[in-house]
Amino acid sequence: MATVIIIAGCALIAFAVYSTIQKARGKSKGASCCGGAESVLAKPVEDTDESHYPYKYNVGIEGMMCSNCAARVENAINASGDTWAHVNLGRARAEVLSKSEKSEADFARLLKGTDYKVTGTEQVAL
What is the three-class DSSP state of 28? Predict the structure, then answer.
C-alpha cells in the first residue's frame, strides 16, 4: 500500500513540474480565462494624434477577466476607425478618445458579438 502511495505522489509531482514548465513556455492549454494559450494583442490605431479626438469617454465594461479580454475589448472599440481605446482591466472600464460624439448605445454596438457588456458611459471634459 505504501508503494502505491509513493508512486502516485511521484506521478503527481511530475505532472505539476511538467505543467509549470509548459505555463512558463506559454504552451499550456487554458492559460487564460478565455480558453486559449495564445495571447491576444491589442492592434494599434492608425491615428495616434490625440488632438484629432475632441471627445473623451469612460466606458464601463462587464465581463473582462484577463489581459486577453482587455485586448479584445480594445480591438473591438478601435475597429470603428474613429475611436482610440485604452482598457483598464482593474477598473473594468475603457478610456476612449473619439472623433465624434458617442452614446452608450454606440459603444454597445461596438462590443456586439463579443462576450462583454457596456455598463455605463460618462463623457469626460478634455
Answer: coil
For residue 120, pLDDT over 90 is answered with yes
Q: What is the dihedral of CA 49, 104, 92, 22, to 10 degrees?
A: -80
Phi, psi of 67 (to 5 degrees): -65, -30
Give residue-wise pLDDT tens across range 13-55: 867 677 666 655 554 444 456 666 678 888 889 999 999 999 9
Residue indicated by cell numbers 454596438: 109
Residue 106: CB atoms within 10 Å: 17
Instruction: State which amino acid sits at residue 112.
Output: K
> Within the chain, where are the H helices?
2-25, 67-78, 104-110
